[in-house]
């Protein structure tokens, strides 16, 4: 893992982040957005934070696509700013979390090659927010085969696990082993050699919570789909909630999974969501509850340790939720969903 | 041998009692102010970084940022107070105040 030079400067980064956080859309903005059509949403965004992106992309795209690409680009801009500002250890801690987007980009490129999509189409789906620079990403886009992509990734941590998964991919012809390999690399580096200290201890707890929630979500999805897959195949190491063996022992039993989650340390936060999940048998509200719980948790950490990476991570999460929300509104309106249905999809704190 | 040590000890103690202290009063006073300024500077480091961050996001924060940045300077002013209280004012105080009051009245 590369260490960035200089001492860390949490004061500078957290103030800028708090200031940017205050301009995120609030309840009222969302209430307005829900009543708008895609074109109006684009106009509303043009008068807000997203002005530059909408203007830059407005000539080439329109409707929901314009909104989506502008959102992606804005997200990338803000997260690249974070990496620009931070020095030293703080940079490492932020970069470690933002590698999520490296993983996303690698997966997008792989999927693009798999589905033989046009590289221009794939490019608009990339989020250039991670640590990989534009040159590498452009070369990844130009790559013609999965082997080529892996060769280009040679200097990153993704190369070796991808190579290992390549064989399985060639045997089965499905992308799942490759995508799992990428996800695993991301989550493994997330917790590896995290520096000590009280503030970092809480950061670790937050990351573990994120991994736990991801595991819970995967397990519940698998259990509900009724597919005959061992959930431990999708298991991510590092969480507190389940062990791999425990998870495969539970298998597809939804009730037992819910019971395990209810008994865990997250039980209090997720209790009402779990009740709702059991009553309505719908994953949507449960996944929303997971998102809200994670957001609240990161917010709380930001108040406990104001001069650490915690407020920055909470901003990253809040910004991601905002982008997801606007996307959900735009897509929902396009698909003709009612206002109440869209509102149910939103994650608002 | 033992007698020599005790003699040496008395000499050393006497010497210590009579000789100048390691840090003379004026140097100690200067150090006190200097250390206070160092503390103020360290405090300003964090506040200044945060203030510049705030100003970069929003220009209106400039004045507020500036005020908050120089607040720790009060530490140095307080250090000057202790300096005067402990070492005495370096000029003739009575004369100084007399001159000041006569000038005022």
Compact overview of the structure:
The complex is a heterodimer of chains A (349) and B (105). With 349 residues, chain A is an all-alpha fold. Chain A has helices spanning 10-22, 27-34, 38-46, 51-57, 63-85, 88-114, 119-125, 134-142, 146-152, 159-172, 176-191, 198-225, 244-250, 254-263, 267-280, 283-304, 310-334, 339-345.
**What percent strand of chain B?**
under 5%
Overall mean confidence score, pLDDT of chain B: 81
Which residues of chain B form runs of ≥5 with pLDDT under 50?
A: none
Order of helices and strands of chain B: HHHHH
Helix/strand class of chain B: mainly alpha
Largest interface, with counts of residues having CB < 8 Å to the other chain, equals: A-B, 11 and 11 residues
CATH architecture of the largest domain in chain A: Up-down Bundle
Q: Which structural class do you get from the secondary structure elements of chain A?
A: mainly alpha
Regarding quaternary structure, how should these chains be classified? heterodimer
Beta-strand percentage of chain A? under 5%
Shape of chain A: globular
The CATH topology assignment of the largest domain in chain A is V-type ATP synthase subunit C fold
Tally the beta strands of chain B.
0
The major β-sheet of chain A equals: none
**Number of separate helices of chain B:** 5
| Low-confidence spans of chain A | none
Helix fraction of chain A by DSSP (H/I, runs of at least 4): over 70%
| Biggest sheet features of chain B | none
């Amino acid at each position: 893992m590369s260490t960035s030079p200089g001492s860390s400067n949490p004061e500078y980064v957290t103030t800028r982040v708090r200031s940017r956080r205050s301009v995120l859309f609030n309840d009222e903005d969302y209430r307005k957005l829900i009543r708008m059509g895609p074109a109006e949403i684009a106009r509303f965004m043009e008068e807000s934070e997203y002005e530059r992106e909408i203007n830059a992309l407005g000539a080439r795209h329109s409707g929901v696509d314009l909104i989506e690409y502008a959102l992606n680009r804005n997200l990338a801009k803000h997260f690249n700013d974070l990496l620009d500002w931070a020095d030293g250890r703080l940079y490492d801690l932020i970069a470690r979390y933002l590698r999520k987007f490296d993983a996303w980009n690698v997966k997008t490129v792989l999927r693009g090659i798999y589905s033989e999509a046009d590289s221009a189409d794939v490019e608009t789906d990339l989020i250039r927010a991670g640590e990989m620079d534009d040159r590498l990403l452009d070369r990844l886009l130009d790559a013609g085969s999965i082997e080529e992509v892996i060769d280009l990734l040679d200097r990153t941590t993704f190369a070796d696990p991808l190579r290992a998964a390549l064989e399985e991919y060639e045997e089965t012809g499905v992308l799942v082993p490759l995508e799992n390999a990428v996800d695993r690399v991301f989550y493994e580096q997330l917790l590896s050699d995290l520096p000590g200290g009280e503030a970092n201890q809480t950061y670790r707890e937050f990351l573990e919570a994120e991994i736990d929630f991801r595991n819970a979500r995967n397990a519940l999805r698998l259990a509900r789909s009724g597919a005959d897959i061992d959930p431990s195949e999708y298991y991510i190491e590092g969480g507190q909630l389940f062990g791999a063996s425990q998870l495969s022992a539970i298998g597809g039993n939804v009730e037992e999974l819910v019971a395990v989650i209810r008994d865990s340390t997250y039980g209090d936060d997720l209790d009402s969501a779990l009740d709702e999940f059991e009553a309505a048998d719908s994953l949507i509200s449960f996944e929303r509850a997971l998102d809200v719980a994670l957001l609240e948790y990161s917010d709380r950490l930001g108040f406990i340790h104001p001069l650490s990476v915690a407020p920055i991570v909470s901003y990253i999460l809040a910004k991601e939720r905002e982008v997801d929300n606007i996307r959900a509104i735009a897509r929902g309106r396009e698909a003709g969903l009612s206002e109440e249905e869209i509102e149910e999809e939103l994650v608002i704190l | 041998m033992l007698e020599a040590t005790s003699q040496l000890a008395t000499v050393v103690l006497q010497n210590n009692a009579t000789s100048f202290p390691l840090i003379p009063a004026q140097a100690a006073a200067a150090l006190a102010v200097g250390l206070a300024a160092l503390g103020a500077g360290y405090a300003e480091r964090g506040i200044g970084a945060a203030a510049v961050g705030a100003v970069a996001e929003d220009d209106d924060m400039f004045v507020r940022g500036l005020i908050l940045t120089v607040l720790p300077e009060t530490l140095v002013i307080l250090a000057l107070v202790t300096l005067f209280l402990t070492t005495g004012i370096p000029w003739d105080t009575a004369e100084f105040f007399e001159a000041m009051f006569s000038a005022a009245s």
